[in-house]
Design goal:
15% strand, elongated, 4-stranded antiparallel beta sheet, alpha+beta, single chain
């Protein structure tokens, strides 16, 4: 399973620590330690049990990350366990991929259950949580 990891940058300012406190449950001390050791302040399991909430969290991270100057980096960790740093464009591509997978699953369920007769009849089951992710 893929995990998206939010890892704080080193040398954080008080304002940056405050921003990281808003996206994690960690204390100031824990955030400072995470920045020093370059460990995650929040992990998101893609399509995990909390995906409904987590996907919106990831979408909110994209804009400040894409604009630059975010107090964190985004890493993707796959089954091999080795995290890979995602540039803003790569992070955006992953979010779009996750949405495309969701839509494909919805389409397949609708076809299998006879709710629609062809893919052309498909209407997404939910709002596009990353529709605004075209430009930062």
């Amino acid at each position: 399973m893929t995990t998206i990891r939010v890892i704080p940058k080193r040398g954080l300012t008080p304002a940056q620590i405050g921003a990281l406190r808003r996206i994690s449950t960690l204390s100031i001390y824990e955030i400072q330690r995470a920045a020093e050791s370059r460990t995650s302040v929040r992990d998101v399991r893609v399509f995990g049990a909390d995906w409904e909430e987590d996907r919106r969290f990831l979408a909110k991270l994209w804009e400040p990350y894409a604009k630059g100057g975010a107090p964190f980096d985004v890493f993707e960790q796959n089954r091999d366990g080795i995290p890979g740093h995602l540039l803003a464009e790569q992070f955006q591509a992953r979010l779009r991929l996750f949405r495309a997978i969701e839509l494909d699953q919805q389409l397949q369920v609708d076809l299998e259950n006879g709710f629609i007769g062809s893919p052309e009849e498909f209407v997404p089951h939910d709002d596009d949580w990353f529709a605004f992710g075209a430009e930062p």
